[in-house]
Batch of 2 targets.
Target 1
Amino acid sequence: MKNLKYILISIILAGCASSTGNLALEDSKSGIDKQMTAIHTRTDARRKFGSPALVFEKGGLETYEYKRIDGNGRYIWMMPVIGYFMSWLQDTYSYEETNLFIRFQGDNVKDYSIVQSGGTTN
Amino acid sequence: MKNVAILIVGLGLWGCAIPKTPSDVDLHDGARHFRSELFDTGSRGQIILSASDNISKDGFFGINYTNIIEVENLQTAEKFTLLVDADSKKTLYDTAMLPIGKYRVTDAMLQNISETRSYVGNTTVTSTEVTQFKNFFGNRKIEFDVRPKEVIYLGHFDFVKGDPRVSKDGAKMLNKLNISDKSKEIPNEQKQKWKAEFGKSFEIRLAKDAK
């Protein structure tokens, strides 16, 4: 009975999360740092992460941007009774965006940077 | 008392079982909110636009339309939607932080969503009606550029719904979309809010027809 309760809670919480974008990209800085140890060229980057979300010039060098966005439903309705009725009026969720920028000199990786940002929205 | 407690816990658990899982559209919509960490990378620019239409009416019997403008990044094919609600005098603008590149307006329409409830015996029947008016820009190619770390005012998008009846001289009045500079009408308070949020004042560079 106790295990069933935990299973049900896990299913409910998992149902609230979703992701979009370059999903081969890890969603943490440490995870991406680990991935980047094997990335040395444009070909490596495309093979690992696929087509970049954006290609632009930064500091005079071609730059690939990879991004993923992860979101979660907000649990405002978890308050008994009041939360249930409030959920009728307001659908809200939180999101976190992870961006990897890889700069190339010639065909080789010159450097990379990771930006993580997010917020909540209605 | 025990039954009341069970009812409260039951309702709470029921509410927990209906979470809002954000869709792809929700996530992209969230991602267009301004964040300085991303803006400062040089991969984003910020746009501001205003909109209005000639058919929304306030008042008890009035119907107000959401002015919807969809734009597409011509390099990445990403689409973003900007919304201005005509029924809220506080929100006459929309802003978005977009990846840099050239954009084209791919859709412009007016939309109203209304719900009506009727009662059949003990049952409440709710019906949702969506009214849309499309084709405001015809074959025009309206484009604009988003450049690194720029904050730009794209213009005021005026949706003019034509009269479907044929006029006396035989011409039909079609729907039109006019873009003009109404930056002088933006209250100073609003300009200061944007400057505080985006870190700089906006430049004026209207969306226009591609040559």
Target 2
Amino acid sequence: MNNNDPILNELANLVALAREGILSDDQFESLRKMLHDNGTVRNYYYSLVNLEVCLKESTGLHEASDSLHNDPRDIQLWDVLRRHEQQAPAITIAKDRSRQDAIQRVVHEKTPSRVNKFSLITAVSCAAALLFLLLFVRVTELACGREVVTLNDSINARWSDVESSMTKGARLTVNSGPLFLQGGMVELLFDKGARVVIEAPAEFQILADDRIGLLYGKAYATVPQGAIGFSIYTKNAKVIDLGTEFGIDVDSRGDTCLHVIKGQTRLIAGEKSDTVSLEVGQGTAKKVTDETQSVTDIPCRTNLFVRAIDSKTSTIWRGQKQLKLADYVGGGNGFGTGLLNYGIHPVTGESGVATTANRPAGNTYMRLPRHPFVDGVFVPNGKDKQEISSRGHVFQECPVTQGNYFMEVINTPALLDGQVMTLNGIPYNTRENPCLFLHANIGITFDLDAIRSRVPGASIVSFQSQVGISETALRDPNADFWVLVDGELRYRKEHVQQKGLLDMLRIELSDTDRFLTLVVTDGGDPGARELPSGFIRQSIDCDWGVFADPVLILE
Amino acid sequence: MFRCKECFMDADNKYTYTKESSKRFLSLLLPAQKSLFAYILYHVPNRNEAEDVLQDVMATMLTKFDDYQEGTNFIGWAISIAKYNILALRRNNKRMRLIFDETDMDRFQDEAVKKMESLEEEYELLQLCLKKLPEKYKRYLHFRYEMDMTYRQIANICNLSMQSVYRTIARIQTMLFKCIRNTQSGVARE
């Protein structure tokens, strides 16, 4: 055989290419010629094909995927039968009328068995349906375990061997799998409370109501108190949660890397007499090498894993510590996906590009139930009670204003009067340097609970922002700045008449705080007045309130 | 008279099949499916096309099961349908490549059938050889044959080029082929 090794190698390579239809015409002809001309090569060829067929029949090619595995031959057959049943007409055919005429004869003669094709298809389809039902019941009985997990959410998820049930809300049973996620990411919510985000490519299996097997890929587990003991098993390690958040990355070599983001875990690695069991705490990471089963320290990477997803807002949270408040106003998810120069109209509540005009308005609080992160907007006038949240919180200290407004609450305006918003010499007109622009008289309330829900396991600990009137305002301003949390005043600066950076805000927030309100009012200026130059100056003229790089800080 | 002895007319004079014939079909097909697929793969080199052909052939067999004579060579009957379907599909789709033209299909039919007969033995020998295969190679086979991944998908996971992947798989197949042959020789000597 050694003399034929180059031929065998070449044959194997050509066949491998042919399997995916990526043989060139010349290569294909070369393959055909080899097989046509030489019986020994043909024999090798048949043997290689036999080998592939046998490999396809083999199970347990990888140890961790040894459990529940349908006979692949059955799957194709059932698919044929199922399709046959679906395509066949669902009626039965009366017997041939010509035979009824023959009944009138005293003696029947045997007629040739010409079978009506339609009746044949019908008969076969009934048989196929029955057969399919028998087989389906058998498989279902074998495969059904207890339902313990819900596919809670997914972003761009693509599965191999796609089943129609693998959509949001699908229930997974014990011994579901192995499931192969080819693309995107999914969030699994175990009935006991553990939440696992799996990022493709990944292969996994539900092992129990508190356990998942990860053959390869990335998984991030957030485990509440009631679900302590939740575990992720890999081929060479077991990680047991002790009240924590952790991520596991199994690469194509089979090495397992554990990163503990919060709390404690127990890591068990190795086999039998060489088993290692150790506690791995917050901020530390370990690697279990598949080849040697050794456990080594590695740097803990906090942004390696997708910790939470929200398909409605396309949020993919990898543990970023800041959420950009202005981004929400631009229709984004807090991670810079929103549109610039885009905002929310304070009277209609509609989102759109910036529009400018001095306009009067009532002070009705415009609730935004369909906005994922903003509770509402308003034009404060101080004359009537000023509601500032959908829960009825009131801005008690609201000053009297002229009740007019100039433009929407804007995420990072492009230009206003040809000017870029600037504080401390820094222009805030890009995604890297965003700002929330509040031209008096205007207010906006953010729903912190809605924001928290997209970053489970994280606490919003503060709101931070630089604040002031843009240095590029064309004339002298006079504006008031207000920040409230659940209607309680937390920051107040009135009659600001200097342009530029006013303050570095840091407002502490707790898990029970729900609504964050930002307001800019007109400083109490009188209504329209004519200047010596003839210019009609409104009360809100050049009250360019800038919250520069406003962020919510997470822990 | 309707050919199928097990069919009967119900009170409404309608024909129906019993489930017996369906069970019989399945009991004959399942053991033969491996051989049938091997035969198709000998001739249709593209994996996806071969699987489509298999589905097509099984559907035809189901439809024509009434033509099968009980007690005769089931796999022989299946192959005749497979050959017919392969050529018919090729006529409808000129882009489908076949290893052998119709003449060579006939010419090499006997040796192909003989090779199919050794499938079961080779399967058993393969299981022994797989035990000796290093784990890292088994992973490739798992991706390719259990997970049905393409070379490109495997390349993405393993951070390799597609060329490396198919060459590695070809090399693994060659290793297994040699192992099976050596084991066969060893068994023959005994």
